[in-house]
Amino acid sequence: MRTAAAFATPVTPASAAAPAPHARLEGVTRVYPARSGGDEVHALGPISFDLRQGEFFSVVGPSGCGKSTLLDVLSGLAKPTEGTVTFEGAPVDGKVPDGVGVVFQEDASFPWLSVEDNVAFGLRRAGTDAAETRRRVEFAIGFMGLRDFRRAYPSQLSGGMRQRVCIARTLVMQPRLILLDEPFGALDQQTRLLMGDELLRLWRETGATVMLITHALDEANLLSDRIGVMSARPGRFIEVVETGWDRERDSSLAERSEFGAVTSRLWSLLRGESLRAMGQGQAAEKRA
Amino acid sequence: MTAAAPPRASISVRNARDPVLVCAAIVIGWQLLHELAGDVAITAPLPTLSHLLHMVGQARFLPHLGETAMAFGQALAISWIGGVVIGLLLGGHKLTGEVAEPVLVTLYSLPKVTLYPVILLLFGLGMQAKVAFGAFHGIIPVALFTLNAVRNVPAAQLRAGRAMRLSGVQQARHILLPAALPEVFAGLRLGFSLTLLGTMLGELFASQRGLGFLLMKAIDLHDVETILAIAVLISAFAVSANMALLAVDRRLRRGAAPAGHGA
């Protein structure tokens, strides 16, 4: 039996009355300075919201609405122009805090390292001792189904397998908050569904809080406890939709009638925003 | 599974077979040219090789070889170290790199041999001019490759490093360096060939020692056998050095996509 006990992070029971938020954004905006010949770009916010301890939160929104910017700011990869970000009560200030793991949309595996060494990378840089590193790498490789490929190099793997390597590389650091920026964006639909199930299993077994950025409404619906629907740029939450799914769920959920209702709800919220975003894009093209 | 490499034995057989075939083809082609052109232009392979052996065995030959080796060694050191340093400095800063690249490309496209008189005036007749001319050929491509190697490190890899809380030094040592290394090495390989070319060109004109000097003397005396013997010696050195560098290159690229041999 595979157990996540070794990985367990303190999970506050969902029933606890108003638990402290795991991460919090207060009045966060992000404005990109003007580039030659253009105006400054107000990409995000103001956004204020709480990420609950142990929840699966997804963010959907029209393309270019600042979803990735939101992730950058929340993770500490970028500083907010205004407002504050806190993680576990401590301010996040332009540096990724300990306990936060990030998985990117682009393939970020290191081509010069084998799968095993890719997964061990973060632990080795952090100076974790060899026995502990071995134990954790072993777990993460097994968890992500990479046992047969441990000595392979990324170029020998498919896109889906490479993304698994990146997730394993994050998982091995035992993050309490996992941020994923469209991690399955480059994968085909079937692989996406299976990876979604993997992600749910990872979320359940580690007890981590997960925030997933995606443009696939059914994916957000299937995976999440709550879905934040963002407006066209500057991105703000128009509404946060609660799905109410059981913690023990998988892709078979898609057959249920309530599932369709949630997806329809998301689309009715997003339709107008997506049209606006398209208009923004065309206007930008004309200017250019 | 997908990770399985082709059986090792077939690789080594193929590795040994190809160079042998190439050498055989060259010798046959050489012999044919000799039959067509005669001893006036091309001596036959066998006599040429025996002349080469005889030449290398002579005591007065070694100082010339040493002179060329010394000039090439110094020029190569300048090309490699200088090129990598320049490339790193220019590639590390986005705008500087964007400005510098076309300048370097233009400089590189100059017909350098026309500037050799200037180099002779600057450095005088002798070792220094040869070294300068060799380095002049090699340093720009090495710098260009290094510059692009640094610029082409995928942003996602650097971001992943930051997400794993790497310090600046760790980023440079554990991500930037290994990510850029294969392309930097490709530059070193090209720099090697061009520095050799530059050094030899430098020796052909206005020098008193070295293989290039022997070559010019042989041309004056119409000593075809010596001309070809020196050509064979230099080619053999260039080819074997290039093969060694290629072997390292392949090892560095073992992780990269097999099709990514470009640039």
From TrEMBL, chain A:
Domain ABC transporter: 23-257
Coiled coil: none
Database matches in Pfam families: ABC_tran (PF00005)
SMART domains in the cross-refs: AAA
Keywords assigned by UniProt, alphabetized: ATP-binding, Nucleotide-binding, Transport
One annotated GO molecular function: ATP hydrolysis activity
Record keyword Coiled coil present: no
PANTHER family: ALIPHATIC SULFONATES IMPORT ATP-BINDING PROTEIN SSUB, TAURINE IMPORT ATP-BINDING PROTEIN-RELATED
Family of the protein in this entry: Belongs to the ABC transporter superfamily.
UniProt-recorded name of the protein: NitT/TauT family transport system ATP-binding protein
Organism: Albimonas donghaensis
Lineage of producing organism: Bacteria, Pseudomonadati, Pseudomonadota, Alphaproteobacteria, Rhodobacterales
UniProtKB/TrEMBL annotation, chain B:
InterPro entries with a match to the protein in the record: MetI-like (IPR000515), MetI-like_sf (IPR035906)
Gene Ontology CC, one term: plasma membrane
Topology class, membrane: Multi-pass membrane protein
Domain annotation ABC transmembrane type-1: ranges: 65-245
Pfam family, one: BPD_transp_1
Keyword presence, NAD: no
Keywords, comma-separated and alphabetical: Cell membrane, Membrane, Transmembrane, Transmembrane helix, Transport
Subcellular location: Cell membrane
GO biological process, one term: transmembrane transport
This protein's record includes keyword Transport: yes
Annotated TM spans: 71-91, 103-125, 131-154, 175-206, 226-248
Similarity field: Belongs to the binding-protein-dependent transport system permease family.
PANTHER family found in the cross-reference section: ABC TRANSPORTER PERMEASE PROTEIN MJ0413-RELATED (PTHR30151:SF0), ALKANE SULFONATE ABC TRANSPORTER-RELATED, MEMBRANE SUBUNIT (PTHR30151)
Protein name, UniProt field: NitT/TauT family transport system permease protein
Species annotation: Albimonas donghaensis
